[in-house]
Amino acid sequence: MTTQRESPRVLVSGERREAWLSRYSSRLFITDFLVIIWAVIGSQFIWFGTARDAANAQYGLFGLALNYGLVSVGIAVGWIVALAGGATRDATVIGAGWTEYTRVINSTLKLFGLFAIVVYLLDVDVARGFIITAFPIGLLVLLASRWIWRQWLTIQRRAGRYSADAVLTGSRETVEHIARRLGQQPEAGYRVVGACIEDGVAGQVIGGNIRVLGDLDHVIHAMEDVGADTLIITSSEHLPPDKLRALSWSLEPARMQLIMAPALTDVGGPRIHTRPVAGLPLIHVETPRFEGGQRPTKRVFDTLTSFALLTALSIPMLGVALIIKLTSPGPVLFGQERIGRGGKPFRMLKFRSMVVDAEKLLDTVSQKQVVEGSVLFKVKDDPRITPFGHFIRRYSIDELPQLFNVLVGSMSLVGPRPPLLREVEKYETHVHRRFLVKPGLTGLWQVSGRSDLNWDESVRLDLYYVENWSLTTDAVILFRTVKAVFGSSGVY
Questions:
Q1: Domains of the chain by range and CATH?
Q2: Is pTM, for the whole model, over 0.70?
Q3: Maximum Cα–Cα distance for the chain, whole Å?
């Protein structure tokens, strides 16, 4: 007797997305579990070794002697539960942004605080060294393991895997804009597989490579045809509330997700708050604050850090100055007028990397400008650069004297690029918002592409920093600066 083999069920699009999310979350869980066990058991071994009689906590409120093995198990289980309760492996935070790391830190600190309270209330004398070792080391390794997994996920997503297959719908302009921005950040996990636009005809191509799947009345059928699991609404002027609500209901059977992309872009996460009011998902966007308590803190940080760096790098900088003097006639330092905060000029210092009469030769090399018509003057293989100048520019060593500008307050460690006066004269009105903060030795655009970025993208990143800066953002940019400096391309 033969039995008929049941054919495997084909996963709907939403289930496919949930499947890879589940696999990735399981891998994070296994890694978290191993790290926590290693940190807790390792700390116990460091402080108590394998001596059985040394592994007992002191008597507490109820006259109980607690075995440190049980304490370690309790901490490990509590830690794993805390990470799960803190939604540290939630699909909305993995892959991009700092929310995942923030949740891991907050979950760990809450567990540490709860443990301290319990120990205090029960009057149990637990070895402080054991706790002080387990939690910090465990937290650092947890963050490192999450970072390693994120690098792996970024590689997968750039190859088109482990990403949501998204269909964009809205006006042609907003669809092209959102598609372009998502294409610039594949690590965010959204791969555009098509679009439905007003009066769209299947087979059209817009924005260079976006395939039109149909008009706004055939969104669900279009998503089913291409196997998409995510619908991104880029604009809703052609989608009235009742039609948009019905569209969201139509996504439920296939477990597709709906994302609304507001028209306002380049707004940092801390400034955005969603608040349901009268059934309306209102998005509150805080006004950028260019003054406040963080300003003095930023200035103190700039002063102390620039002084420390100048002290530590004084001998290498003297060596660079000596080589410049021996290999090329002229002064060691090059001072150039730049425009700073409030549109006020200041003199920016650099190690000289060009010949002495470089400014006089400017017209002869302007025709080699990388981007024609760009406000930002960039020339590849500039003949005015000295042999040693190529080296110090490649690794941004020529920028080190700007630490003196930071020390005296005309610049900050992190901020927009300080422009030349001739560049400012070509600025559009909105670009002048760059002058609301001090220019920086490094900045967001420098660590996001350096000389390979075009003018519009450089401006966008500078304005994003101006409106959304924070001390945390500065720390991240400084960390990324090291990677940018030693990257493969460097600067021109």
A1: 13-158 (1.10.1760), 164-263 (3.40.50.20), 294-485 (no CATH)
A2: no
A3: 97
